[in-house]
Amino acid sequence: MNLRTECNGTQYTAYISGQLQYQDNGAFRTLVDDMTEANVKSCVFDLSDLTSIDSAGLGMLVIASDAGKKNGWDLTLSGAKGQVRKILELSRFDQLMTITE
Amino acid sequence: MVASEKAEDVASIEGVDGDLFEGAAHKPGSNLVSTGGEPLRAFSLELDESEVLGRLEDQRSVQQQTLEFLIKEIGSVSEYVEENTSSLTERFRTMAVASREQSNVVDTMAYDVQHIAVEENDVPISELAKDLSDTMEDFFKKVVFLSSRGVKMSYTLDDIFKVLENMQESINEIERINRQTNLLALNAKIEAARAGEAGKGFAVVAEEVRSLATSVNDLSSDLRDQTSRVTAGLDGGYSIIKEIATVDMSEDNIAAHERLQVMTKGFVDKNAQLAGTLKRSAEASQKMEMEIGASIVELQFQDRAKQRLEGVSDAILKMLAVSGDTLPETAVSLEGTSLEFRQALASEIANIFKLGTLKSAYEAEFGIMSAETDNSAADDASGSDDDDIELF
Lengths: 101, 392
Description:
heterodimer; A: alpha/beta; 6-stranded mixed beta sheet; 6 strands; B: two-stranded antiparallel ribbon; two-stranded antiparallel ribbon; about 5% strand; disordered C terminus
């Protein structure tokens, strides 16, 4: 996972690129903690450049969403393409969180 | 066969044949007959009164015989129609039954292709496809849930590792302090030795402290050993959790699922198409059955036709009876009548019949040889079984 983040005071955006898999769980945990600490209502995972994701990656997205619910921020997944988009559709992630183009 | 029946009837009619005719009712001028192409008048000027009566009797006789023949013909036609109608009705009934069976079979087929037995229950195939899709979705959701729990678990393990690291730090600290304690004890021992006798008691204390430090050292190395083992065990758990949390969700796996979905959809669509075709087929069969039913009802016209023909026959019979009753007894003079004249008159009437069988049967009534009377009817009359074929 390659990560770049930005926060404009009201929205925290994380640009996640490359592959999201189990090995990234440590870095991802830190990211989620940072999001909570940023104290904003809206967080976005920009997945435009994410090429692949495995079940652990999906699990991490679920954990992020759960953390948001617990700490008062909404999670939006945006720009997913290809395999990532298909797998999000198959797993019905639209029922768990907001997904945008 | 028909001809022979007719022949019998002729005999019976001739037996009853009284001299029942009223000459006054007849118009002599209208009875123009011909034999062998030559015109023949019923009444010529040369005839005397008895001869005129004889001619009248001849005419009446021919009329009666003709009417009897016609009644028989009507009866025979009625029977013929009845026979064929009942045979037709029977065939239609068979068709109706076959058509109903066919429609039932098609209905059953339509049901069968749309359902499959699942644990003794019939499940529509369309639902099956949805079930399959739902099951797959559910499966994916569960995998994701499991993975998220796995990742969460590894977070917990990470936290434990941090605690273990802290413990290691603490052990290191204990060892560091212990080393200092040991050093201090050694210094105290040296100082005690230098103090001589006065330091003897202090030397004992210093020795105790040193042995205590050794014990602490043993304890801490034991602690370090156990901590390492816990860390190693958790490392194993960590890799197991990784295995649990990580399910391959590459393009190939998704493609397999997509192909399954496409195949299922194709199967369900084809199935619906087939069911539609079968439904149309069943509808056509039902329509056919209805049409056949209506045809059977319409065939009942024969019964009414038969009754009407019976009415006609009865009326003719009544007419014959009436004319017989009114004829005076005195008119009996069959002796003077001419067979030749009657046959000529009958031949004239016979020419009206276009159907060869009918014509020759009529001629037989009057003992006329068909070959003599008509050239075209001769061939038809020779065979009695040509009527069916001629009808069509």
